Amino acid sequence: MAVFLPVSSLFLSPTITPVKSFLPMRHSPEKSPKPFLLLAAAGSVAFMACWALGKAAPGGFLLAGAFLFFSCACSRIEKLKSLTYTMLILCLVCVAMFYPKPLQGWGDFKYVTLIPVLLQIIMFGVGSQMSLKEFEGVVHMPKAVCIGLVCHYTIMPLMGFVLSRLVAFDGAGIASAMGLAEAGTIDPARAAALSGAISAGIVLIGCSPSGLASNVMCFLARGNLALSVTIAACSTLLAPLMTPVLMKLLAGTLVEVRVLDMMHDVIRMLIYPIMAGLLFNAVATMKPRAQIAREGLLFLGLILVLQTATGFPRGLSAPLIGRGILQTAGIVLVLAPLAGLLVRFMTKGNEETVKRAMALFSMIAVCTILTVITAANRDSLIKIGVMMIVVMFIHNVAGYFIGYWSSRVAGLDERSCRTVAFEVGQQNGGLANGIAASLPLEAPVKALMGIAPAVFGALQNITGSALATWWRGVPIRDTAPENKPGNDR
Questions:
Q1: Can you state the angle between helices 259-266 and 225-251, rounded to 10 degrees?
Q2: What three-state secondary structure class fits 109?
Q3: Which sequence spans correspond to the domains of the chain?
Q4: What is the protein's membrane topology class (predicted)?
Q5: Around 37, how many Cα atoms within 13 Å sit in the side-chain half-sphere?
Q6: pLDDT over 50 at 439, yes or no
């Protein structure tokens, strides 16, 4: 779920508004990318020189700078604009790998504990770009939506399960790299638990809903954007049920999975922030009062149902459930609309300004999550990074390939097949990291579960951009006249 918008330059940002409304820069004069390309090349050469001389510390800044300058260059090259955000991500990964200590925590406080909050910020941003009309696609194209959802919640979870069983990770070596034990002294059961946590992370990323950049990839690939938005929205709403149940079935032997607790966590990190974002957007963009009132009553009913349905089975008392309802309703139904009023006053109800601001807000949170996770797992990534990259690459590309051809076999048109490919292959790594951070497990195990989502999140931006760029140059011949690519611009 994402939009393509100019914020300093064109970035892929984590929201789900139709992309085409954010392309006003297309008609602006093109600026030369040469200065940035020269700086990127100079930084790369300087990095290689430092590496050859064994000067890793300054080399990290040089490599990160090279990626940053190349990101700026990509924003000025039409065919490479889709790589702008990807290069920025690689810049942050470099910083986290070379200088992890400042990014791991402050004193005894570890930044990874902020991941659930950052995810809520992201999903609030997603909600602020949405409307309930996003779900009308279920009525207009039920076959394609159902095929996309079934493919998403079968192909990626099963691929994750298979890969987690085929690849064995060295738990003892990981423990040594993390400083948990001296090499050769760790208990075998402990080593197996650490190895299992990494494997569980592979399954977890496969069980997550659609990724935050799926609809921008779909737009670039000339796919069915309306279908992409609908599948992404529906897969997110199904996540509180599907993700915990699939994790219990496929990874229950690797780590402890409490289905009801995980359901509650997913609802707290996904559904409530989206509700708050929807109301925020309705107020900030001056929607009719009747519409705001209807959405508020609907969300109040959903809060009552969800808090009760996940509270009593977990053994919570009625007063505790009531307190949870009041707190959640206060944030969703009171604080979010008040924030919307403030933003409406500041922006005079300009919808495009609100969307751009929230997109930037969410993008910063996405970058922060990836940076913190990479820094927290830096030593483990050095130990298993190459193997994990290979595994996540297979997982990601298999999602595109199987998703596309499954849709072909099911009889969907070319544009819809491309859309389903992205909705299957792109996963919400932020949610996977948030779930891992919220599990009632010891810190090293939670950190190791976050490795696969972090690697997958970075890789899918590279593979998705490459696939979208390639598909954009491939003609679509089996699309009905009303669905031709030129008609959605």
A1: 150
A2: strand
A3: 108-488
A4: Multi-pass membrane protein
A5: 10
A6: yes
* Residue 407: how many other CB atoms lie within 10 Å: 24
Residue with tokens 């998705």: 464
pLDDT single digits (tens) 73-98: 988 888 777 778 788 888 998 999 89
pLDDT of residue 430: 84
**Residue 386, SS3?**
helix
Which residue has 């048109």 as its token pair?
413
87 alpha-carbon distance from chain centroid:
16
Q: Which fold has domain 108-488?
A: Na+/H+ antiporter like fold (1.20.1530)
pLDDT, position 448: 84
Q: Which residues of 215-235 are buried (b: 16+ CB within 10 A; e: fewer)?
A: bbbbbbbbbbbbbbbbbbbbb
Separation between Cα atoms, residue 322 and residue 306, nearest integer Å: 12
Q: Which of 334, 324, 333 is nearest to 298 (CA)?
A: 333
Give the H/E segment covering residue 455. helix 451-472
Region of poorest pLDDT, from 3-12, 331-340, 355-364, 458-467:
3-12
- Sequential DSSP letters for 152-201: HHHHHHHHHHHHHHH----HHHHHHHTTSS-TT-S-HHHHHHHHHHHHHH
The helix/strand/coil state of 67 is helix
Query: By C-alpha distance, which of 68, 21, 89, 1 is closest to 458?
Result: 89
Q: Any idea what DSSP says for residue 113?
A: G
Tokens of 465: 């951009």
How far apart, in Å, are the Cα atoms of 304 and each of 123, 262, 413?
20, 18, 41
What is the H or E stretch that residue 235 is in? helix 225-251
* DSSP code for 18: -
Q: Are 360 and 7 in contact (CB under 8 A)?
A: yes
Say which range, 22-31, 201-210, 222-231, 305-314, has the weakest mean pLDDT. 22-31
d(CA 242, CA 449): 19
